[in-house]
Amino acid sequence: MDKACTDSHGFTIIEIAIFLFIAGAILSVAAMAWSVLAQGRQVAAAKNILAEVDSCLMDYAIMARKIPDSNYFSSYCSKIDPWGKNLRLVTNAGNNPINCGASTPGTLTVKIDPWTTVSEVAWVVISSGPNRSFDYTLSATTLDISTGDDIYVFESDTGIHEEICE
Known about the structure:
Blueprint: H1 3-6, H2 13-64, H3 70-77, E1 88-90, E2 108-113, E3 116-127, E4 137-138, E5 142-144, E6 151-156, H4 157-164
């Protein structure tokens, strides 16, 4: 028999299949890790944007001695989150004066998770989060952000008084 036909130096189908399986597994793990990192960067960016907007609203509260309303928010503070959605302001104390001689309670109650509720909130700024959908529910005086992946920042009556009155 010819020596060229019996001395094979190539890879067998099984070796190639094993290599492709291992390479695919490695690429799949890398793709998942990349996705998690990218989402983490977007969440961090959203938190930074929310902090900027909260600062803008607080600047107004300090200057005007009023709780900012949706008109001020839309005109001067509104931004777009990393998922392309406009941030939302939730307040039902908009344009109320801030009285440093007495408490000026915000009239909003915020349910952060099933066990935590914060009262006397002046405003909440909300980003849609990674699912690009606002998941909160709002009744007359209660905002429930305990479900979904919305990202938020809020200011309480106490925080406003500490910033403005002391």
